[in-house]
Amino acid sequence: MPAFIQMGSEKHFSSLHTTLCATGGGAYKFEQDFRTMGDLQLCKLDELDCLIKGVLYIDSVGFNGHSECYYFENPTDAERCQKLPFNLENPYPLLLVNIGSGVSILAVYSKENYKRVTGTSLGGGTFFGLCCLLTGCSTFEEALEMASHGDSTKVDKLVRDIYGGDYERFGLPGWAVASSFGNMMSKEKRESVSKEDLAKATLITITNNIGSIARMCALNENINRVVFVGNFLRINTISMRLLAYALDYWSKGQLKALFLEHE
Amino acid sequence: AFCGGHGSLDKSITLPPDEIFRNLENAKRFAIDIGGSLTKLAYYSTVQHKVARVRSFDHSGKDIENEPLYEISVQEEITARLHFIKFENTYIETCLDFIKDHLVNTETKVIKATGGGAYKFKDLIEKKLGLKVDKEDVMTCLIKGCNFVLRNIPHEVFAYQKDSDTEFRFQTNHPNIFPYLLVNIGSGVSIVKVETEDKFEWIGGSSIGGGTFWGLGALLTKTKKFDELLQLASKGQHTNVDMLVKDVYGGAYQTLGLSGNLIASSFGKSTTADKEFSKEDMAKSLLHMISNDIGQLACLHAKLHNLDKIYFGGFFIRGHPVTMRTITYSINFFSKGEVQALFLRHEGYLGAIGAFLKGAEQDNPNQYSWGENYAGSSGLMSTSPDVYPMQRTRSGTFDMLEMDRLERPLVNLPLLKDPSAYIPDTVDLTDDAMARKYWLTCFEEALDGVAKRAAASQPDSVDALERAEKFRQKYWNKLQTLRQQPFAYGTLTVRSLLDTREHCLNEFNFPDPYSKVKQKENGIALKCFQSVIESLDSLGWEERQFALVKGLLAGNVFDWGAKAVSDVLESEPQFGFEEAKSKLQGIGRSVVEGPPHKCALIFADNSGIDIILGVFPFVRELLSRGTEVILACNSGPALNDVTYSESLIVTERIAAMDPVIQSALREEKLLLVQTGSSSPCLDLSRLDKGLAVLVRERKTDLVIIEGMGRAIHTNYYAALKCESLKLAVIKNSWLADRLGGKIFSVIFKYEVPCK
């Protein structure tokens, strides 16, 4: 950030005499620096207000004639998975899940009326942070690349690992994760997994957790459409498809996961 | 000798039979819950112990004048007891061998088993014990066990309280326990809604649980053991690893009211830092991450189902104050203080209790009331290394719970104003450190005298001295445990200290050390009865009321339980009733005016002068005014308190001398009942069902509670629906001081409920 502001100062941004609108936490954190180092006055706008305005605007103009908003059909089937357009003309009420470093969940009732339902600190920053520590990777892209080649079932303990199959009493399928990183309690298993497996497990854990929380919020707020946005999902098809599947499965088809091209 | 092999089954520890696997000979109905590292074994057995019984003599042709009032005989009685023992899996083989060697009963063919380990150890158990293993579903057992402890063990539930002298705040057991949410945090998290005894539903779960903490923790910090990870976490600073709101905003996120110190992204600093993180910081961050996530999900489910109480269990919680703290914080945050995070004292035993109940369904254990046996039960977290780091002795690796089956079901007094808010005890010693220190010292100092008296009460027994010494040692150890961990058995109160002492006395076959003393005093008092009545009858009405109350209080002075009094009584054998009356200080005026009550319930205190010369004249007065009287006495002995069976004999003798009492008995206007208690104190939420029924039937509208144990140590603040009178003489100078008076001051609390 200081380097950026310095550049702005060198290029005389302040002589442009236009309002520099800024949002996000940094607009507050760096406001002072912008003024002193770059002689720039920021017009601070709340990030959630901006987020919602942005979502509604971008959907209204579309994406080169295509729909901005889409969903997945058959998300877990590699062959048959399809991105299909979704009409957001009558968007309300909507649950908006913004996954950045952390997560904010908003319930939107109208253009002017929304509330922040809750948030979670287990977000994109956690995925990336844990990956760096576990695998030594240094960029988000690298972390995702590793994850795409890994097998999380070596790292996680599944229902079938405990019960030998489905746990019928609770309606839990054998493939569901019973304990994330649960196999890592054993020294032998720790020594037998690869960095890719760990990256994948981290991705799955964070993604499923966000899906769970989003689902519970949707139930509590009585909303059945959930839009996922944020940088965590940028180029992250694995997470998007997993969210789509999980939301559909655990809600027995009652909830729909939606995405935007320009999340 | 102890020789542990790393990871191998320990074969050579010797188990002292009196301490750990007790009463095995007649054990039946076994159940076992084998978890990842701990095994819990349950069995039902009978315990033989001595009970003092009283019986009227057959008077034909005997010398009535010199004969004792009644016959005391010591008999063997059998009570049913549930035993639960917890130990590490490494000892499983040794324990099974031990059980096989001591088990005599051959009726049992089956052992109920639950827990993941039930699969792994099935063959070993079947081979060693010769019993068939019958597997039960773990969640079903957990819920059944949970229902049982919630119903039967007072002070089972506690909440974590920050910034308090002792961090655990125990809750009163609500009469209706359903519905509730149970969150079990093992490797993963299960969330179960329990609606009735048999109806429960898995409503959700999470894969981020104890296994995640352990697994990720091991990967990040190279620490192999769960307990060690927690130790690391307790020393770490998560702010070095997590990205906080202030890291993003430079301060608080004002518009939403999010504090700058909130975690915006767990492990969020990992991406930007150049340096390595310490193990402690990473462990702390992990702990917060997981606790917060579980708390959030639990709150979301609680909200959906409209529940405001969540019970937490599972190895992530068990015995770990640091996880209880973080979970409590998380629940408070996400529910904005509307939902309570609660923990169970016997959480680790739930599965074993449930498995046992499944096997014992024929006996219908739920129709009985059960009580915790303090003598045989270990305290909370007796094996937790964080809390009790000194506990390295072999027996420290075993933890026990014993529950005695009570003969009669216990229920609430119908006259309690608000049963769910009723707390019997007046002072909470877990909270009040000064009071705690005083009372623990007081009981320590009195112990020698109690042990001596116990031995002296059985002069014909060869091993009385030996048993008395064992009693002394056992109770002493309990007191030391309570000094270290006041919360070991729930809320610490004078009542629990007294009850523990009684349990220990019973344990070593001293069921009624004062039986002979009581018998003698009853005899002497009966001889004075008629003259007392005559002098009362000669007084004017108002004077008589005052004299009756004074007499009631004076009689109450005669209490061996109070050191001050036993000092006097021991040094002045002629100390009589009249002298007692004059020793009382500051009696307030007391006249019971107004129309006579329909029915009075009197909870009596001491034997001898108290009941015969204090209570009975008062009872007689009430009866003459047309008020019915229910006289409630202890079911079992405690100190020199009058027991129900003694009261029957005493009443019979009085009736022979007094027509008022005689006709009241005949017309059933004077009724004698047992309270269901064997304590010097009184818990109005656990009374004999028969008493409760009678109270309702007779429309009792006046309750009289006498004595320090029942009216001051307990029930001083009890609120009833009807009029009540609490009477006692303070025989303890510290307590007198506390309450603002002098020793031998009088408490006379007459309360009328507000409309």
Largest sheet of chain B: 7 strands, mixed
CATH H-level superfamily of the largest domain in chain A? ATPase, nucleotide binding domain
Distance between the termini of chain A: 23 Å
CATH topology of the largest domain in chain A: Nucleotidyltransferase, domain 5
Low-confidence region ranges of chain B: 1-12, 385-396, 585-591
Shape of chain A: globular
SS element count, helices of chain B:
23
Pfam family, one (chain A): Fumble
GO biological process, one term (chain A): coenzyme A biosynthetic process
Protein name (chain A): Pantothenate kinase 2
GO molecular function (chain A): ATP binding; pantothenate kinase activity
What does this protein look like?
The complex is a heterodimer of chains A (263) and B (755). By secondary structure, chain A is α/β, with parallel strands linked by helices. Chain A folds into 3 domains: 1-45, no CATH class; 47-150 and 195-262, Nucleotidyltransferase, domain 5 (2-Layer Sandwich); 156-192, no CATH class. Chain A has 10 helices and 11 strands. The longest helix of chain A is centred in the last third of the chain and has 27 residues, at 195-221. Chain A is globular, with a radius of gyration of 21 Å. Chain A starts with a helix and ends with a strand. Chain B contains 23 helices and 24 strands. Chain B is 38% helix and 19% strand. Chain B is globular, with a radius of gyration of 29 Å. The interface between A and B is large, with 57 and 58 residues. Chain A: This is Pantothenate kinase 2. Chain A: GO terms for molecular function: ATP binding; pantothenate kinase activity.
